[in-house]
Amino acid sequence: MGSFGPESSGTGSSRTGSFGPENSGMGSSGMEAFHGEDKDAPAGKGPAASRRGKKRALVIGAGAVLVLAAGGFLIFSLFGDKTVEWADSNMEQMICQGLDLPREEIKESDLEAVRVLRICGDQVQLYEDTGEEAQEPLTNVSGVSLGKSRQITSLEDLKYFPNLEILQIRDAYAGEGTAFQDEADGGQGLEALGQLKNLRVLDLSANDLEDLEGISEITQLEELILSSNSISDISPLEGMNKLKKLDLSFNQVTELERLSSLKLTSLDVEGNQIMEIDPLAQITTLEEVNLSSTKVVDFTPLLELEKLTSLGLSNLGLGSLSGISAFGNLTKLDLSENCIDDIRELSELTGLKELDLESNRITDVSTLSALTQLTVLNVGDNELTDVSYLGALTELTELVIYLNDVTDLSFLSGLANLTLLDASSLECTDFSAVTKLHGLTSLDLGFNDLTEAGFLDELTNLEHLDLGWNDLTDVQDLTHLESLRRLNIWANDIADVGGLSQLTRLEELDVSSNDFADFSPICQLENLESLEASNNERIMSIEGISRLKKLKSLDLGDTLINSLGALQGMKELRYLRLNGTNITTGDCEDLRELENLQTLMLGDTQIDSGIYEVLDALPGLTRLEMASNNLSGGCDSLAELKNLEILSLSSTGIDDLGGIRGLSYLRELWLYALPLEDIGPLSDLEHLEILSLSKTGVRDLRALSGLSRLEELDLSENGIVDLSPLSGLTNLRELNIEENQVEDLSPLSGLANLEELDMDENQVISLEPLAGLSKMIYLSVQKNQISDVTPLAGMTRLRTLYLDDNNISDVSALYDLPLIKIDISGNPVASGR
Predict the structure, then answer these.
(1) Confidence of residue 386 (pLDDT cuts 50, 70, 90)
(2) Which of 805, 778, 804 is nearest to 792 (CA)?
(3) Class of domain 698-833 as given by CATH
(4) Name one Pfam family in it (predicted).
(5) Distance between CA atoms of 771 and 538, rounded to whole angstroms?
(6) Within 13 Å and on the Cβ side, how many CA atoms surround 213?
């Protein structure tokens, strides 16, 4: 039940959404907050990145940047000062790249002038001022994590930056306080930040932080970003009285009492396990709150927040908006990914400027015509047929209406201020109304059966265009759109991409799943950073691609290429996908020079065990996929790839896992269909979160008993009888044990976080051990020997249930469950309700 206030008491709703890890609502605006980036596009190509590109800068090494300030170079003294003595070699390397200086030429006074330091993965920026440019957070351009062994393990060297005001270390710290501190060589942790007396803004997101001890020393801090870590204890924040903005999204926080004395203006706790928000009533200074993807059902404490203007309530299972009109000061509201079908009460929130209603059950948006101050609106993925009422919202700059049954877009002609429009997946055949929207910079018309794009002729300001999954046969209609930086034309019938050579500003291009053979026009796009050309079965040669010196991400999967010589010299490549090609081990010799490569995908190619010699030259790999190749034997050579976090060896014939024993940073391991007798080496991989052992023949699970971080585990199609080694894996969310010989489920009784369980085709008689698993959403117990389903009565979140082919005669215990799908076929169920 979701409750906004006294008048909503008693209204029911079901739980299910997301505000987005990058767009958590804390001061973000526009489509970045509601619609996000294309899910397959590398990060860092948004407005922030483009603004940074307009400022004079010197690009160094692996994405490092020395930014010019105050109209001139940041001057570094090279004489008469003490040379910096670094405590952390990785920090040293990052700063050397950032300054484009060898270590012996970096003096202490050089670093004293730095006011802003941003490190994100392998990207580095330093600024001597805190102007608008320096305020932009750095994003990981490559989209791939920097290897843990190359991350900072000690923060002691921050003492050389005494005047820092803004510090960002995102996805680049693996020292004290993180999940990987045991692999670090010691050194100072967060307590080292206490020496930065001028620090106002600190971003430590995505660092696997578990412990905040020492952070309370930064008493003058005004903004703290701790998103995407593993923090549960926030007591160190209790005395940080100058803190105004706090981002704790996507952690493991369960209570907010420790924050009640703070004078926050902005708080983001999205994606935590919070149930009660009573302490927020005491933080009367709050202006922005994001509660998306939490367990909160009672919102009445928010009524005490008279200054509240921004509220995130995505993915909370809301079915009713009764009482929301009490929040009359709101200018920004996110209600996406809920179960809302009636939005009439929103008509009273006339001050709204940004509204997200994506992924609900809305059929009528006439109410919204009264919200004339709206500038950003998302009603995508609903049940709409008529959106003409939106024509009254003439202040709109961004509009998302995708995945609705809309047939008429004529209302768009009056929305002259639009800069972003997503009208993908509609039932419309006439897009002529788009023609006059000359201010558009971003347009998505994917999934619309378009056969031509001539109506885009006048949209010369377009920077982002998505025409994927249509019926286009050529690109000639696009050649005059010279401002394009991102173009997606995947899944069309394009046989000739020659016209693309004129789009010289392109930075991202997706031409996958088309029908062209000539790759050469693409090789003229020298500003490309990301290229997806997979599933073009006529491409045999990529000759000339070495001209694309800026390319960081390349997907050539499922093409007919049989040579990689053209990739020589492409040292900026971070991501390379070659799955489904005819590439051999010999061809891969040309990969040795790709020293910055972090992701390599060679699944279903023609490589053999000789590939290990090539991999020895790529120690920076964090993700390696070699599934469906003939690599029979051991994998000892993998032991040198210390940075691996994701590894797929499925269907390779490998029968000895000794080589992965020391890969301590592994998070995901895929071993499907390997002939394994001994999985003992897995016991050392304590950071594993996802593990597939399906169809391996494994029966003894004792090696898994200590893998406490496991969240997803696939043990299907083995001969397993005893599940007792799994009893301590309390972080498991998904478990697949189908097609085994399991009779006793009691070892699963304590796995309170289980959300999905698949146990088809076992010998289970009783479901009683599952009775306490209240978070279960999906349960499949087909083809067992079950007769009693009463233990499932307490699974109040269960949506999908498969019970077919058992011995069940009474299902009355299931009547009150919020099931969306149930299958009880093949059971002797009595007729009735």
Answers:
(1) very high
(2) 778
(3) alpha beta
(4) LRR_6
(5) 55
(6) 8
Tally of CB atoms within 10 A around 132: 9
Write the pLDDT tens digit of every residue in 105-121: 899 998 999 999 999 98
- Domain residue spans of the chain: 698-833
d(CA 778, CA 16) in angstroms, rounded, equals: 13
Q: Take residue 330 and report the two structure tokens written for it.
A: 């709101």
Is 623 in contact with 600 (CB distance < 8 Å)?
yes
Tell me which residue of 458, 452, 492 sits closest to 476, measured CA to CA.
452
CB 529 within 8 A of CB 141: yes
Half-sphere exposure of 287 (CA within 13 A, CB side): 6
**How far is CA 264 from each of CA 288, 295, 507, 509, rounded to the nearest angstrom?**
9, 22, 39, 42
CA distance 162 to 113: 9
Backbone angles phi, psi at 245, to 5 degrees: -120, 130
Of the candidate ranges 104-113, 345-354, 450-459, 824-833, the one whose mean pLDDT is the lowest: 824-833
What's the token pair of residue 766? 């009783």
* Cβ contact 115:165 at 8 Å: yes
242-281: pLDDT as tens digits: 999 999 999 999 999 999 999 999 999 999 999 999 999 9
**CB hemisphere CA count around 367 (13 angstroms):** 18
Location of structure tokens 């006294």: 6
132-168: pLDDT as tens digits: 877 888 776 555 566 777 889 999 999 999 999 999 9
The Cα 152–Cα 162 span in angstroms is 18
Quote the Cα angle for 47-53-56, to 5°: 145
- In a 10 Å sphere around its CB, with 0-12 CB exposed, 13-18 middle and 19+ buried, how is residue 160 labelled? buried
Distance (Å, whole) CA 176 – CA 189? 5
Q: In sequence order, which ranges of 476-566 are alpha helices (DSSP H)?
A: none
What is the length of the chain? 833
Cα–Cα distance for residue pair 627/671, rounded to 1 Å: 9
Q: What does pLDDT average to over the chain?
A: 89
Between CA 332 and CA 505 the distance in angstroms is 34
